[in-house]
Design a protein that fits this description.
Mean pLDDT: 96
Largest sheet: 4 strands, antiparallel
Oligomer: single chain
Strand order of the largest sheet: 2-3-1-4
Number of strands: 4
Shape: globular
Number of domains: 1
Distance between the termini: 11 Å
Low-confidence stretches: none
Radius of gyration: 12 Å
Strand content: 25-35%
CATH topology: Alpha-Beta Plaits
CATH class: Alpha Beta
Structural class: alpha+beta
């Protein structure tokens, strides 16, 4: 299983709008893949956020949904993938 860590910065004026959009993103991803994400904020920087998706079995399907649904956020995002060692 693979875990995905997606991080990005958000303009302070857009945080609330992004929060709402991320909830919709999580709903769509969960509906289509069964994986529920969590949203975190960097402790020492209020405008850096991370989405965490754990236990992804079908990487191809998950990545397709993630790409499609996250495009609407309009953010430059960095995605990292990790597996258990």
């Amino acid at each position: 299983m693979t875990s995905y860590y997606v991080y990005y910065r958000v303009d302070a004026a857009r945080v609330e709008a992004i929060r709402i959009a991320v909830r919709a993103l999580f709903d769509a991803i969960e509906r289509e893949t069964g994986v529920r994400g969590s949203w975190m904020r960097r402790r020492d920087e209020a405008t850096t956020f991370m989405e965490v998706y754990e236990g992804v079995a079908d990487e191809r399907a998950f990545e397709a949904v993630l790409a499609r649904e996250s495009a609407a956020l309009g953010l430059e995002r960095k995605t990292e993938r990790f597996v258990c060692a």
